[in-house]
Amino acid sequence: VTEQNPTVRIDWIACNAYGVCALVAPDLFGLDDWGYPLVDTDQPVPDELVRQARRSESRCPMLAISLETNSGLGRR
Amino acid sequence: VVDLVGGLRSTPQAVLLGGYFGTWSRPEEIWDIPLDPAVQRRAGRSLGCGLISLFESSLCGVARVAGIMSFLAGASAGQCGPCQFGLPAIAAATDRLARGRELSDDLDNVRRWSSLVRGRGACAHPDGAAQQLDSALQAFAADFASHQKCSRCVVLARGAARA
Question: How far apart are CA B115 and CA B58, in angstroms?
Fold first, then answer.
């Protein structure tokens, strides 16, 4: 994991528990009792899961997932 | 402070510092800690909104917590799922526990859901609620356990025996 790996950010207001994130990025997202995502939003995504993270960002029907880099400049 | 408002009628069962987003303590844990924000923080407590509430020894802590959680569930803005669904689920389960109508996994679920709502909202409403709930689960640990195991409130039973 490098400084450059993004962290996952969830827009909790936008999220509607479709669960697409857990389908397209099963190694990154779990779902809670109500279908809302369980994901580590503190640590950068490990190298091997960055592809899944990008997929979840682009497939979320509510656009509730964004990937942020430590630089604070937002998405790469 | 307690002496200023007339002193104690009886030793309280627990003390809630900082209101509904505060922390419960057993009186012996905090009675000697000065009401100084810095000192309180070092002891893992906080005065929060500044409220000090003494909980009478003859009342059921589980019922009190159930009431608070149902208030906080109702106060959710309903914008974020974990809070919108989590807090009512916690409120319903603690209410069942309080009434002796608990399901076998209610207490386990309350513990799990409390950590599940933390940090998963746009605001800190669920975090504050979970902090108060976690401290209550500790301060009233024996009461929650007996409500779950025997559907009975030891505090109320003790009161009835005395009467």
Answer: 30
